[in-house]
Each structure stands twice: as structure tokens, then as C-alpha cells.
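Moderator note: this is an archived Q&A kept for reference. The question asked for a predicted structure of one protein chain; the sequence and the answer are reproduced below.
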Amino acid sequence: MTIILDAMGSDKYPEPEIQAAVTAAEMFGEEIILVGNRELLEPKLKALNPKGFPVVIEDAPDLVEMGEKPVEAARRKPRNSMAVGLGLIKSGRGQAFVTAGNTGAAMFNGLRTLGRIQGVARPGLTALFPVKGGHCAVIDIGANSECRPEFLLQFAVMGSVYVERVLHKPFPRVGLLSNGEEAGKGNTLTHDTYPLLEKSGLNFIGNVEGKELFGGEADVVVTDGFTGNILLKSSEAVAKLLIDELRTELMSSFPTRLGALLAKPAFRNIKKILDPAETGAAPLLGIDGLVFVGHGRSDSRALVSAIRVARQAIQADLLESLRQAIKDRLALLETPTPAE
């Protein structure tokens, strides 16, 4: 399989992308295509890849600068790295596209180049949250700030397929994120989404709060992108705060430093569980192609993880499974929104 990696996506491009491409090519023994400005990439790739692992460059001369509006920039600069990379997916040159660039730009370029899976109204960005006993897929975490109930129903279907195929959990439990467990809790969006999920044929367990999510009581949690993005960033910030404070306290005296030394393997495991770089990137489910979006601050380790996640999706035949699941439920997914 061939993974397409956007070389111009991260905050510190292109060094993290080049290093990740070389590491992944060595690790997996498969070709990685770096998409970006050839003049910038070639000398750096030569220096970082002395053993000649299978990394090739696809020229994308147009550079979208930080601060530019993604949609306008994509239209004015059609040979940007996202557009070129996604074009390679459409032509069959690669099987998955990975970027640490702007989510809005990935969404726009993905829709323009690859389109939606038939029957999908809006693609949803999906993150795997570390929870008790494993992971929970939360969708949407930032692609759609404004949502309608039918969007969340589609997110639930796609999230369930993702968990079944990639995490190997049959008949995953689906929860609706709300401010209370009772069916009547929440805002208009959750009120109108609840009956659609009840009739969906999915393993819908009702509303869930944060405690159920992190307690591992759901395998898929659906919400709008505005709420989901706040949940994601708040969770990451809390995890970082806990790790930093714990490190400070453990280093504060000789007895605590001794205890930290003895417990070092346990702390290392906890840090690994909470580290976003271990997941690497989130799939943009609903695009008619495999598109993965990582943090702008991704380093090479996070990008290698993103490539690994993309490979798992290819191996699981995720895209065809999504197409079939949407096709099987098309009549249900086209159910009109309940009247307010």
C-alpha cells in the first residue's frame, strides 16, 4: 500500500513530515509519497534519508500560508499540497492521505476532489479517546460546528463501522453526548437526534455524559463538531496538566523521587495512554476516500502514528465498509428531521 503524506501541513513543516516519511518507509517497508514544494523538500529528504528508503516527492508548488482562509487559498492556489495529494488518491496512486494541516482545508479539498460517500450529508472528524478499558470513538470533533439531527445519525453509523473494522468491536455501543443521562436532557439537537438513534438499528445506549464516556461505557459517542472540539481540547489540556503536576510533585523531595523511580514503568504507561501522538490523526469519515487529519503541532512521532492508523484503515477495508453501511441504511438516513 502507498500512503500520501502532506509535507506542508504541520506547524514546523517540512522536517517532521520528512522524518516521519523516512521512519515509516523503513518501519513498514512500503512507499511513502511526500507532497509539497520539490525545491524545498529534495535537499532535506536527501540529508534525512541516506539509506534510500522508499520515499518519493510529488511536487506541489503552491504554498498556503498560515493565516490564509483555507477555502479561498485552495481556490487561488490549486496546486497546494492537499489538493495534489488528494488528487493522487483519486487517481489510485495511493490509498490514504495524511495531513497535519488545517481541518477546514482538508474538508474543502477532500469534498472537492473526492466527494462524499453516496448518502452522506456531512463528513465527520473522528477521534479515539482513551477511556477505561480501551478507546471510544467520538464524532464529530471539529469538522461541522453546526449540525442537524440527521448528520448525527450518519455520524453514529460511520463511527460504528470504524469501531467495528479498526478496533474489532462487534455491535459497538453508541451514546449521544448530553448534559444528562435521561432522554429528555440536552438541547434541541440532542432532543431531535435521540429518536433517530433509537430507530437506527444501532446499539444505542442513550445519552451519555463525560463520566460515562471516560468510564468506557460507550464505544462510539456522537455530537456536533463545536461541542466535540471543545471536549477534545479540554481533555488534552487536563491530561497535560495532570502529567505536569504529577511530575512536579514527584520531583519535590527525596522520598517522592525515590517513589517515582520505583513507579516509573507505571507512569510511562499512563503517559503513553494519554499522549495524543500515540493516535496521530483522526479519520474524516464520509469523504469518499481515506483522509486523516492530525494536530498542527504534530512531530515526526505523531505523524508516524498517523501513517500507522491510515494503514490499519486500509487493511480493514474501511472505505468499502462505510460505503456499504451507508447504502444499507440509506432509507433510514434520509429520514426527515423531526419537527421542533
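Archived answer notes: The domain at 3-121+278-319 is CATH 3.40.718.10 (Isopropylmalate Dehydrogenase).
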